[in-house]
Specification:
6% of the residues lie in helices and 62% in strands. The chain is mainly beta. It has one domain. The protein has a 15-stranded mixed sheet.
Length: 219
Amino acid sequence: MSLLLWVLLAWQTPIDEATLVVRADTGVIAREAFRLASVRHGAESSGWTLASTIRYQQPTLVLAPILEVTGDSQPSSLEFDVADPRDPQRIRGMLSRGKFTVRFLGRRTERAREFPASGRTAVLDDSVFALYVLVAWHAGPQPVEIAGIVPRAGRRETLTIRDLGVGPTLVNGTSKQLRHVTVSGGPNQVVDVWLDENARLYKVEIPSRHIRAERLPPA
């Protein structure tokens, strides 16, 4: 991460900060620390930045995206470092003129790809779970369709977001009443996202992959 980016993050106002423990079936496979902050661009423009770092144990893999979204939850920029011993790369994305342009910078290669982003759009990754909090922000009383861009996988998919209201779920073995949002479509089929009354992320569950990411209580 550049020094300038660290300075910019330091001037943002934190909204939420937590760690998710990620399990496949019953085994822990990763931990993800994320920080969500509000940021202002001048007197009239504002948005949010989500910075996440997730560390997988086997195989060793560290994913560190920093996604900035506008006041209407549209992705505006992405800085994504992939620390993979087999294929390290940097991914950079930018929204411009109805397109989200992504550059992939590897050890010896560089390429670019454009994704249409004229309507509601979200940026996701199959192995980063905190990003789903920004997807859940699109949910309303009626089903909402959005475009999901998954840069690292090189795909764009149509997702349907539904707010199912408040219901019971288990988080690290403790029963909680949380807002339940479903994200349907793409290879994951259905993703369950659980938020508290302040829209803070508590759990992401992907039944088709037997994966769940659960918020750890403060130390």
